[in-house]
Write a structure and sequence with these properties.
Shape: globular
Strand content: 5-15%
Helix content: 40-55%
Radius of gyration: 18 Å
Structural class: alpha/beta
Largest sheet: 4 strands, parallel
């Protein structure tokens, strides 16, 4: 199998580049393509969006159509799957999934396509493996980590920052948006190699992992 994986940010790509080889077989292949934010589902699916902006949901109809053209008569489509990975944030999971499926049905990319949504944010997948966090950050605040409820809506990245970043999320936010993004990528680089994918307690991570395994 070959997997094309679309994700909304660079830190997510950093994590998936490390995680995916733990899930797939040695003869399977993958490519993770990152965007510069999640954006919004266009109201008019026929409208053209700025390709240079690289905002995931804004580009999704065009991306689906592009994959459709590429694989419509390509034998490789029998062994190719497309995964769209994005954060739920504060949205309703049921409604958001229905909106994504509506785009898929409208655009019909003609290859197996799955949506995998991190609840609430990608950092919830790290928090599903507290041992991996503690190994990467031995000084992490265990009293705080132990209070985390998996896949809860709790400002997830801020929660993780409060547990492992000096001064917590408030200090990190003071450094600005770019510093936050850089720090998230560092979390991915340090935590993800330690993760045990078979014992992660995040339901949304397990959904992602199991979707890949079922496709294989």
């Amino acid at each position: 199998m070959h997997f094309e994986i679309l994700i909304e940010d660079l830190s997510g790509k950093t994590a998936l580049d490390i995680l995916i080889p733990k899930v797939i077989r040695t003869d399977d292949t993958f490519r993770v393509i990152s965007y510069r934010g999640i954006g919004h589902i266009p109201k008019d699916l026929q409208s053209q969006t700025d390709a240079q902006a690289r905002i995931l949901l804004d580009r999704l109809p065009s991306l689906f159509k592009g994959y459709g053209k590429t694989y419509s008569s390509n034998p490789a489509k029998q062994h190719t799957a497309l995964l769209v990975v994005c954060d739920l944030d504060k949205k309703c999971l049921k409604t958001f999934r229905q909106e994504l499926l509506a785009i898929l049905n409208e655009c019909n990319p003609e290859i197996e396509t799955r949506f995998c949504i991190a609840v609430e944010e990608g950092e919830s997948w790290f928090l599903g493996d507290l041992a991996a966090i503690r190994k990467a950050y031995p000084d992490a605040k265990s009293s705080l980590l132990n209070r985390y409820q998996n896949d809860s809506i709790c400002d997830t990245w801020e929660f993780l920052a409060d547990a492992i970043y000096p001064g917590g999320s408030i200090k990190l936010k003071e450094r600005g948006y770019q510093a936050v993004g850089k720090e998230k990528s560092e979390w991915a680089e340090r935590i993800t190699p330690n993760m045990d994918i078979n014992n992660n307690k995040s339901p949304s991570f397990c959904y992602f992992r199991d979707k890949i395994r079922k496709l294989i």
